[in-house]
Amino acid sequence: MHYYLGADLGATKTHTLIVDETGRGLGFGESGPGNHESVGYDGMFQSMQDGMEQALRAAGLNKEDITGAGFGVAGYDWPSENEATASVIERLGLKAPYKFVNDSVPGLVAGSAEGWGVVVVSGTGSNCRGWDREHKREGRVTGHGVLMGEGAGGSELMHRCMQVIGYSWTKRIPKTALADAVIAHVGAKDLEDLMRGYTTYEYQVGAEAARIVFRVAEEGDEIARDLIRWAGTELGEMANAVIRQLEFENLAFDVVMTGSMFEGGASLIEPMRETIHKLAAKARLVRLRLPPVIGAVMLGMEAGSMSITPEVRSTINETISMMRNISVR
């Protein structure tokens, strides 16, 4: 019997999963954050090691039993980070071949029907990557949000929200109910106090406030509705950039949507769909309903030269449904 390990290293936690060659889950571990940008490479190693040891104990295995390993790594954004990331994985002492990718990619592998296509991430921030069918060519954006004019996760949505509230205060645009909603959110006295406190960094308005925009839009505020349409269109344009890079325009493929912003539903997803279908009419938009660690363990199988059949994929998915402590990011 062969055994495969997958680890999904996120900004807040790391999930590690071990399965056998049939896809049956044997062991799971949850450990600390694994993004080197926040915890350093030593912190990344500690989280990886803790998660691996938990999963191995639960599975009743040793690390020498692992046949292949896959890692989705938050903060692994550029080829220049390849050597440092590989050196951390080498410290785990695995004897098996392994693959590692940016942490957005396992969501694509887990959520698409055949493990390829495009993934759009919209949570606190946003990102977009794509893989061709053979996993040889990758398409991508920078994933650096406002800095690079890419949107839209919750952070980018609120950045733009505060701009339009400022426009409303200076009477560049009509009044918006977003102003009163954000005033209440931060505890400001009035709109001028909100503008003062926000521009002097006394009042912080981050991604956690994105739900306000969706609520105010549902209540009928047209400016809030326009913001969500803007966000959906931006996410679609990010996907289109990757589609062009990979020359998917005439193919039928999955666009996997992952992240908390998509809980906003059709008001965000439909403008995204319309934008993508103008370029790639056969694209299928699907929500990721499974934790990305599934995709990481499939990468481990790929690293170990195992072919992932629909039956294996189905077994892994069934395993995860029984592990109720694993959540979708």
Structure notes:
This protein is α/β, with parallel strands linked by helices and 329 residues long. The chain folds into 2 domains: 3-103 and 292-322, ATPase, nucleotide binding domain (Nucleotidyltransferase, domain 5, 2-Layer Sandwich); 107-289, ATPase, nucleotide binding domain (Nucleotidyltransferase, domain 5, 2-Layer Sandwich), CATH 3.30.420.40. It is built from 11 helices and 10 strands. The two termini are 31 Å apart.
Number of E strands: 10
**What would you call the structural class?**
alpha/beta
Q: Given this structure, which CATH class of the largest domain is correct? A: Alpha Beta
Instruction: Report the radius of gyration as a whole number of Å.
Output: 21 Å
Distance between the termini: 31 Å
Uncertain residue ranges: none
* CATH architecture classification name of the largest domain: 2-Layer Sandwich
Largest sheet: 5 strands, mixed
**Beta fraction of the residues?**
15-25%
**Overall form:** globular
Helix content: 40-55%
CATH topology of the largest domain, anyone?
Nucleotidyltransferase, domain 5
Can you write the helix and strand succession as a string?
A: EEEHEHEHEEEHHHHHEHEHH
Could you give the order of strands across the largest sheet?
3-2-1-4-5
Q: How many structural domains does the protein architecture include?
A: 2
Total helices: the number is 11
CATH superfamily of the largest domain: ATPase, nucleotide binding domain
Please state the average pLDDT score. Answer: 94
